[in-house]
Amino acid sequence: MDTLTKIHRSWNMSRIREKNTLPERTVKKSLHFMNYKAKAHMRSIQGHPDFFLKDYNTAIFVHGCFWHRHKGCKFAYTPKSRTVFWKEKFKRNILRDRTVARLLRKAGIARITIWECQTKDAEKLRLRLARLLARTPSLLSAKGHAVS
Ligand SMILES: [Zn+2]
Fold first, then answer.
1. At 19, is the pLDDT very low, low, confident or very high (cuts 50, 70, 90)?
2. What is the 63 CA–ligand 1 centroid distance (Å)?
3. Ligand 1 center to residue 117 CA distance, Å?
4. What predicted TM-score, i.e. pTM, was given to this entire model?
5. Which helix (H) or strand (E) holds 40?
6. Residue 71 Cα, ligand 1 centroid: separation in angstroms?
7. pLDDT computed for residue 25 by the predictor
8. C-alpha dist (Å) from residue 127 to 7, 50, 134
């Protein structure tokens, strides 16, 4: 028996290309709350990040733990049946993520990954975003940007 029910599986399947998922909306709210100027779904940036912060020259990807294989995360399980199918699928996703990372690096764009499981706690998410963005080479003046 598959560990995923049919409904659960179709829910998972539908999520991969879905825009404005709950984790995405949570990240969007947090960025807005902290006054970061972020554009959603920039087609002109490699890998079409979920958010792009021009002031920070930073692309933010909100990744589903299951599809993008969040290491050590309980949501990144492998279904018990059709194992080969899933392994192939996961491999392709990981390769695609790596390619995007390489292209962004080449283009001199910083990349931040926010995992789905990291969006459950809004407070922690904001701290994480602030910490990560503080590390990116800001294009703003020396005064910087209030991140608290
Ligand atoms: Zn996770």
1. confident
2. 8
3. 4
4. 0.80
5. strand 39-40
6. 7
7. 95
8. 34, 19, 11
> How do beta strands 58-63 and 110-115 pair?
parallel
C-alpha 43 – ligand 1 centre gap (Å): 26
Instruction: Give residue 146 CA to ligand 1 midpoint distance, Å.
Output: 28
Q: Determine phi and psi for 4, rounding to 5 degrees.
A: -90, 130
* pLDDT tier, 37 (very low <50, low <70, confident <90, very high otherwise): very high
Strand partners, 43: none
89 Cα to the center of ligand 1, angstroms: 18
**Ligand 1 geometric centre to CA of 42 (Å):** 24
Measured CA to CA, the distance from residue 20 to residue 74 in angstroms comes to 23
Q: 65-124: per-residue pLDDT in tens? A: 999 999 999 999 999 999 999 999 999 999 999 999 999 999 999 999 999 999 999 999
